[in-house]
Design brief:
Mean pLDDT: 82
Strand content: 35-45%
Radius of gyration: 16 Å
Largest sheet: 5 strands, mixed
Number of domains: 1
Distance between the termini: 24 Å
Number of helices: 1
Helix content: under 10%
Strand order of the largest sheet: 1-3-10-5-8
Oligomer: single chain
Shape: globular
Number of strands: 11
Order of helices and strands: EEEEEEEEEHEE
């Protein structure tokens, strides 16, 4: 699993500033989200250069919770998934109000992939 860095938004009018998509890791990736930045929205942009669709999952944390009160059992929090067709670019926004549902105990936002991600790239922003 590779640790990825969020890009800083740039002014398109300044040719010296640019942002780059980065390669993803087949075993998954993670973005560090410091506590001071957890009040911001996360924007993820994926570019699928692969020859088949790829499913990207933002992994929910914790994945299972015990239910108490009126009833018992467990509840599984769903991941946030997006399917990206081959040759397509798609984005995903995770609002600050829901971000904590996807940040693990060490302040990482974890991504997993299915469908082979050899040519999948990602660009992330905190806004």
């Amino acid at each position: 699993m590779a640790t990825l860095t969020f890009a800083a938004p740039v002014d398109d009018d300044l040719p010296s500033q640019h942002t780059e998509f980065v390669a993803t890791s087949p075993t998954g990736d993670k973005f560090s989200i410091p506590v001071a930045s957890q009040d911001k929205d996360v924007v993820l942009i994926f570019n699928n250069g692969h020859t088949s669709p790829i499913t990207v999952a933002v992994v929910a944390q914790p994945t299972t919770m015990a239910l108490t009160g009126k009833g018992s059992g467990t509840w599984t929090r769903p991941n946030r998934d997006i399917v990206i067709a081959n040759g397509e670019t798609h984005s995903m926004i995770i609002r600050a109000t829901e971000l904590k549902a996807f940040i693990d105990a060490t302040n990482f936002l974890n991504l997993s992939y299915t469908g082979g991600n050899a040519a999948l790239t990602v660009l992330g922003f905190l806004v």
